[in-house]
Structures are given as C-alpha cells and as structure tokens.
Amino acid sequence: MEIKAADVAKLRKMTGAGMMDCKNALTEANGDYERAQEIIREKGKLVSAKRADRTATEGDVVAQIVDGKKGYMLCLACETDFVAKNADFLASANELLDIAVKNDVADIEALKATVVDGKSVESIVTEKSGQTGEKVELAFYAKVEADQVVAYVHTNKKLGALIGFSPAVSAEVAKDVAMQATAMAPVAISAADTPAEVIAKERKIGREQAAQEGKPEAMLDKIAEGKVQKFLKENTLLSQTLVKDNKLTVEQYIRNDNPAAKVVAYKRFSLND
Fold first, then answer.
1. Of 198, 203, 214, 237, which is least packed with CB atoms within 10 Å of its CB?
2. Which of these, 201, 269, 188, 192, lies nearest to 235 by C-alpha position?
3. What secondary structure letter does DSSP report for 242?
4. Contacts of residue 145, Cβ cutoff 8 Å, sequence gap at least 6
5. Local confidence band at 54 (pLDDT 50, 70, 90 cut-offs)
6. Of 182, 196, 183, 178, whose CA–CA distance to 232 is shortest?
C-alpha cells in the first residue's frame, strides 16, 4: 500500500523515530499504526542489545528544583557528542526529568520502573536507542530534599550537582557551593560521612607509597594517616579551599553567611569521571 508523507509524519510524532524508520515500519505493518509502533520499539530493543557492550560517555545532565526544597537531577547518556547536542535528545532528557518530578521519584530504579502511558521509563529509554542508532541509557538519577536545595549544571551539560542546606543560606552562597561541588568533585560533604572504603583505600595507598620511599616500618601507619587527613581536607566539600576566595574553606564561607547553616545533602554526577 502507498505510505503517504502525512502518515510518516504522524508516526514520527507518536514515536520520535526517524522519518525513514517510520516509513519502513509503516510499510512493514501495511499502514497499521499500532503494529508500526511495535516494530519501532522492537528495533530499539535490537539496537540496544547490539550495542550493550558499547560505552555511553556523552549525554545531557539536567536538573530541576521544586519549591526550593526538592531537587532532581538525571543524566541521559549516549555514545556521541553529535547525538547529545541534538535538541530532540536534550528534550528527551528533560521529559524524563519531568516524569521524575511529577511522580516525586526517590531513586533510579524507581524511575526506571515508573510507567507512563503504558510504558515504563526503562522501555522509553530503550526506544531512544532505536531512534538514535546508539546505545542510550539512564546513567544517573538523584533526588535531594532539604530546607533549601540548589542545583548547578555546567554549561556543557556533562556534569552537575545538587546541594541541600538546613537552614537556608543566601542565594549567592548556595550557588557558589553548588558550583564548587560541581567543579571540584568532593567525595563527600565532610570527613565524617566519607565512605569507609574510600578512607581504607587512601590509607593503603599512603602506606604503600611510604614503604616505597624507604620510610621505617614503625612510621608507615603514622605517615599513611597523615596522607589520609590531607586527602580528606582536599577532597571533602566543607574542608576544601573555596575556589571563589582561597582564604576561606567552604565551611567558613557558609558560616560567614549563616552560622547555623549546614550542608545536609550532596549529589554529583559527571560523564567524565
């Protein structure tokens, strides 16, 4: 049967797939829109399966703040910068974020399982593989709640952070701290909440380095502990030197604005890490 341009355009609007993919699907389905949509979804699964071993190192990080107290951030990842910079791909990332916000989704697994118009978010992401011809995946998702939540996403859309304060600080300080976290990639808010495995790893590295330098066996643990403390000072948010003013730590900067304020939540993601 003849497949008209209007039919192809209609299916494209319904699925987001390319024009030729829509035309081929309609041809195979003899003009049956429902079957054509199934064909396109099947193609997405096929592409996703074929490219499962590929790495999705490009993409778009997007964030949204609701009522100043809830923050949501996700990354929709793909294989090439060409796809990541496509307006439709960025729109897809924001559509997924809207789903997360609307359903107040707690974590990435819950987001993947969220159903919209009969389809799970996980299947929607799989369909994007068929539409782009690349591996597409939901690489990251996080939600933060606090008295005040601020988000910062770098201009290249490849990294961003969510910071929660309680009580609130000024808008300028909140933004500066979020930018600091995005740029400097702290492993945790403070030494107290740094994962034990991170500290153990740094302690082991410090001990091995000291041994290789020929330090006495009796001094190795003390030297390793000193290296751990240096690591924590440089790599935890509150102890880091403020990029904006190297005479202050981030903690001092916050306290100068509001002595009662604390950072109570921190999430960061980067496609480059």
1. 214
2. 188
3. P
4. 69, 70, 71, 164, 265
5. low
6. 196
Question: Per-residue pLDDT tens for 73-124?
Answer: 999 999 999 999 999 999 999 999 999 999 999 999 999 999 998 889 998 8
Cα–Cα distance measured from residue 250 to residue 229, given in angstroms and rounded to the nearest whole number: 17
pTM of the model: 0.79
Count CB neighbours of 41 within 10 A. Answer: 19
Asked, as a colleague might, if the bond just before 167 is cis with ω within 30 of 0, I would say yes
> Rounded to whole angstroms, how far apart are CA atoms 72 and 269?
12
Q: Compute how many other C-beta atoms are within 10 angstroms of the C-beta atom of residue 165.
A: 23
Q: 252 exposed, middle or buried (CB, 10 Å; 0-12, 13-18, 19+)?
A: middle
Instruction: Cite the DSSP H helix spans in 70-195.
Output: 81-84, 87-102, 108-113, 121-132, 171-184
Domains of the chain: 5-50 (1.10.8.10), 52-145 (3.30.479.20)
Contacts of 148 (CB under 8 A, 6+ apart): 68, 69, 164, 165, 166, 167, 168, 169, 174
CB 55, CB 269: distance < 8 Å: no
Backbone angles phi, psi at 78, to 5 degrees: -145, -175
In sequence order, the β-bridge partners of residue 265 are 164
**Tokens, residue 192:** 């107290």
List the 70-78 sheet strands across, edge first: 58-66, 70-78, 137-145
As a whole number of angstroms, the distance between CA 140 and CA 107 comes to: 9
Where helices occur in the chain by DSSP H, the ranges are 5-15, 19-28, 33-50, 81-84, 87-102, 108-113, 121-132, 171-184, 196-212, 220-235, 250-257
Q: Which residue has the tokens 């904006």?
A: 244
